[in-house]
Amino acid sequence: MTQSPDPHAGGHDAPQISPAEALQRLKDGNERFLRGTSRFTGMDTTTLDALAGGQQPFATLLGCADSRVPPELIFDAVLGELFVVRVAGNVLSPEVAGSLQYAGAHLRTPIFVVLGHEGCGAVSAALQSHRKGVQHLSRIQLLVDSILPAIADVSDKLPPQQQLAAAVEANVRHQIAAIRDSPEARAREASGGFLLIGAIYDLATGRVRWLDERNV
Questions:
Q1: Per-residue pLDDT tens for 48-70?
Q2: How many domains does the structure of the chain reveal?
Q3: CB within 8 A of 182, min separation 6: which ones?
Q4: 202 lies in a domain?
Q5: Helix-then-strand count for the chain, H and E
Q6: The domain that contains 173 carries what CATH number?
Q7: Which residues of 131-142 are buried (b: 16+ CB within 10 A; e: fewer)?
Q8: Does 78 fall in a domain?
Q9: What is the pLDDT of residues 24-47, one digit of tens each?
Q10: Cβ-Cβ contacts under 8 Å for 145 (sequence gap 6 or more)
Q11: Does residue 4 lie within any of the structural domains?
């Protein structure tokens, strides 16, 4: 079975930046967001026409659906720069995995970011189920159940806020491991032209904290 070309993808011949350069662009964008000096001043028809012909994002992000954590804003990105998948708890479901596989295979973004955030309601709900046996509404419980393995080793001796912070980070790391479990992700990492990294967004400050950045 042959694979038909995707008219909405940038294509493998699209100019590529390195994972380190992509990470720096995200960092610079977050700094602009913190300073309130956004690059976005409005959209023009030339840009819209260009984007209608295809996309060439430089980064893929798996983030939470929380309305306070829009990646395009916190990284000061304009249309077409980020390929974003959002779901409560930034969890890797089969549907999400399909979207990420598309980003890797067709868009060839050099960096994948799993973006959690402080005070995540989905992770908090998972802690309630794990610690107190709380059962949530049926569909929410399905989501919570997918987070439970990620937070199983979070110490119950920590104060509640520290427990939640530790669980948020543990969940990000768990989702990274799940993404890395695919042959495509492992092959891209081995090639040296791809970075899979976690980050935590602080709701109170607007700052993004990068995990394991020393290994980049």
A1: 999 999 999 999 999 999 999 99
A2: 1
A3: 97, 101
A4: yes
A5: 8, 5
A6: 3.40.1050.10
A7: eeeeebeeeeee
A8: yes
A9: 999 999 999 999 999 887 878 988
A10: 129
A11: no
